[in-house]
Amino acid sequence: MQVVHNLDRAESGAQKPLNFKVSPEFHREYKAYAAVHGISMVDLLREGFDLVKQRRG
């Protein structure tokens, strides 16, 4: 049996894809919101995740 170390930390600065799908409407709204506010979609995701973690613990 092969052991997979998928929770090992990536080297600093490296990025990995998040693999999930959203509706075309959500994608359009999300992308437009990020563009209007001058932030990347990744930064918007990070900010939203940080807020959820603060609220839910």
Automatic annotation (TrEMBL):
It comes from the Bacteria. GO terms for biological process: regulation of DNA-templated transcription. SUPFAM superfamilies: Ribbon-helix-helix. InterPro entries: Arc_rbn_hlx_hlx (IPR013321), Ribbon_hlx_hlx (IPR010985). This is Uncharacterized protein. It comes from Polymorphum gilvum (strain LMG 25793 / CGMCC 1.9160 / SL003B-26A1).
